[in-house]
Amino acid sequence: MDTGRCSILKTKQALIVLLCIQESNKTMDNEVVGKSGEAEQAVPISAATGSGAREAPADTRDMYMVHTMFRREFAALPALVRGVAAEDAERRAVVADHISFLSGVLEAHHRAEDIHLWPKLLNRGTEEIAPLVQVMEGHHERIEDLVTQVAAALAGWRERATTEQAEALARVLRRLAEVLYEHMALEEQSILPLAEKYVTAAEWRAMAGTSGAGLPPDKKPLVFGMTLYEADPEVIENTLSSLPSEVRTLLQEQGAHDFAMYSERVHGTSAPRRSAPLGPWD
User: Tens digits of per-residue pLDDT, 169-181?
Assistant: First the structure.
């Protein structure tokens, strides 16, 4: 069998595995909700209910590796736009498609938090948590508005590849990155410790399942590879620990392969610059 066919088969196998994981997450979430349909009545976390029983708490380490991916990719966008020559329509299409793709991944990620995370923290936590959750929800609203602005500026840049259009897009992308960095830093500092206290591991996996459900099936291995690039091997191992060893290997190899090829096309290298604090804006 030739290499190309092997690669296609591997991708299809990875997609099947990911879809199975997604369905498994949905099943676990339904089990938490129970027959009454009210998830908050069926949570045996002692910190939230005062009962003696306690389910395994959420392991939030995977959120850090997702944030690392967002920091790396969104911080790079303004320079990518500015680096496209006005007459290079092919390169402009590559960068524009990348921006649209990242925006979709971010929206799916935040939608899952809106559905699963904020309501649980509000219902189970102390009164002091409410203002913090309100700030996080406000960040989501600002980010959603900026993503809408990005889409409008992107449409203009696709149609009219002028310096002015490129600069307008680069600037709104920079504003998006700034708000996103602020949001993720606060989430890591204040929200994730609360999630470990008030959210179960099953519920956390269900949130990841909802996020994955918002992605195009053929892009799921790529997203995994994008996240894998800077991830702690121990966290990756834990994330995939419930899967057979051959499936773990398949996901890691296919994800890494897909990201290397994608990054070569978008960034010009299979090993792009790693995540870092936002630099100065000129």
Answer: 999 999 999 999 9
CA distance 114 to 109: 9
Please list, in sequence order, all residues whose beta carbon lies within 8 angstroms of the beta carbon of residue 97, skipping any fewer than 6 positions away: none
Q: What is the CA radius of gyration of the chain?
A: 20
| DSSP annotation string for 166-187 | HHHHHHHHHHHHHHHHHHHHHI
Q: When comparing pLDDT for 102 and 51, which is higher? A: 102
Q: How far is Cα 204 from Cα 196, in angstroms, rounded to an integer?
A: 9
The predicted structure's pLDDT at residue 22: 45
User: HSE (CB half, 13 Å, CA atoms) of 4?
Assistant: 0
**Residue length of the chain:** 282
Backbone angles phi, psi at 64, to 5 degrees: -65, -40
What is the residue whose two structure tokens read 């979430």?
29
Contacts of 210 (CB under 8 A, 6+ apart): 25, 111, 112, 115, 116
The pLDDT tens digits for 30-87 are 444 333 334 343 344 654 545 445 689 999 999 999 999 999 999 999 999 999 999 9
Residue type, 62: D
pTM: 0.84
252: tokens are 């890691």
Question: What are the tokens at 112?
Answer: 């899952």
How far apart, in whole angstroms, are the C-alpha atoms of residue 57 and residue 164?
Answer: 50
Task: Give the integer Cα–Cα distance in Å for 69 and 67.
Answer: 5
